[in-house]
Structures are given as structure tokens and as C-alpha cells.
Amino acid sequence: MSIFNFIRLIFSTSFVVISMAFPVDWTSAIVYYCQIRSFVAGICIMGAVTMLCLAIIDQYLATCSRPQWQQWSTIRLAHRLTIIVSILWIAHAILYLINFSQLSPINTAICTSPDPIFLQYHVYGYFLTLSNLIPFVAIIFGILSYRNARTLTTRINPLVRRELDKQLTIMVLVEICVYVCTYFPYSITSGFLSLNTNRDPVVLAQMNLINAVTLTVNILTNGNSFYTYICVSKRFRRQAKYVLIDIHRNFCRENQIIPEIQAETNNEY
């Protein structure tokens, strides 16, 4: 999931932000700009949210009281599902690689399709259905996982395992809530902007402003995982402190040079 978010941030979101801030026409600078950007965004957006959904489902299976369901929570199955999901969304993004070939006349920061049928699918099938249905499923399993985590104290499990399961369940549940709050407004405004036929400059300026605000909020989905885990999990904060501060501090201490005079004085004492 983090890999998908990182690729989207570098190769898709950054170009959109620059286009909205400055009058840059990327189509004249990069050949097949809209096709490549739409292809990358189509893979990374849906790939990231699907991985998050699968992580929550895996946590639900891991905290379930039925042993036969817990057996489905394995690393081998996770690897296979990752490959299947990647292939699935790459195949889906090929449609955007073929059809999204021009900039929108309303907002040059976004790409659109000259095919009205595919544009209808993009708005109603992709923005309003797929991109919101998967987070909705993730929220349902997140609530079920949280309910399972609250009953872990009544089961015969190691104390450390119970606490880790509780923390991980809360982390993924909060993360999917943050994703819904940041992505849902952007999907709605982008859908309406793609279907808008009003050429009134005032209306277009207002819609572009709303789209820019929701896009800015949506960018938070690319890097919210780290900050969400920092705020929610005490164990993750302790581990992050150890990696970012303690290891660096110990490394600097190991490479300190002691003056020879001081070393001799210490030996005399």
C-alpha cells in the first residue's frame, strides 16, 4: 500500500499540483502525458485502497474466534492476493491508458476522455462506485475487527498477542476512516466537474476552487499512514523513536573521537 501511495505522489499528484498552481501545459512537454498519468493514478489509487481493505479483512480473520477462519490469515495468501490485485488494477488502468488522451477544457489540471461513454463510466463506475465501495467494505470489516478485538480479553491468548491485535485493529480502522474523509469529497467534486457543461466563468472558477481544496485534502491519503500510526499506537511511537532518534544517537556516539591526552588522564585514574 505504501508503495502505491509513493508512486502516485511522485508520478501523478505532483504533476496535478503544479498544473493547478502554475499555467503549465504538460502535454507539450511530455508525450502521452494524460495517458501515462491516468494509467499510474488508476493503478495506485485503487491498488492502495484495495490493499488497505485486504489488510483490514486479514485483521478481522486474525481476531476471529473461529480457528478455521484464522487459518486464512497467512503471509502466503497475502502475497498471492497482492499479485492478483496488482494484475487486476493494471488491466483496469489499461482502459485509461487508451481512452484518457486529452486535458479537460474546463480544468487543464485534469485529464479527460473524448469518448462520452467511457467518461460516464469514469464518473459513475469509477469515482462514485468503485472508489467508494471498497472503503465502505473496509469500514464494515474494520468495525467487525474492532468488535473482535474487544472480546480478546475473554479468550485464552497470550497477553502480548492480544494487545498487539488490539493496537493493529485500531490503527487500520482509523486509517480507513481518514481515507474516507479525505478521498470521498474529492471523488464527488471530480465527478461533477467531469460532467459539468456549464461554461460560465464564475461557476467554473468556483468549481475549480472546490476541486483544488478537495484535491489538497486528498493528497493527505498518500502519507497519512505514518502520522495515523504515530497518533494511535503507543508501541509504534516507541518504535519510531527508537529508529529515528536512538539508533542515530548511538551511531554518533560510536564514532566519537576521544583526545589522546584525555584518554591518558583517564588511564592514570
Polypeptide structure, described:
It is a single chain. The chain has eleven helices and two strands. The C terminus is likely disordered. A two-stranded antiparallel ribbon has the order 1-2. The chain has 269 residues and is mainly alpha-helical.
What's the gist of this structure?
This protein has 269 residues and is mainly alpha-helical. It has helices at 2-21, 26-29, 33-63, 67-70, 75-99, 116-150, 159-195, 201-218, 224-232, 234-254, 260-268, and strands at 102-103, 111-112.
Number of strands: 2
In the sheet with the most strands, the strands line up as 1-2
Order of SSEs = HHHHHEEHHHHHH
What's the tally of helices? 11
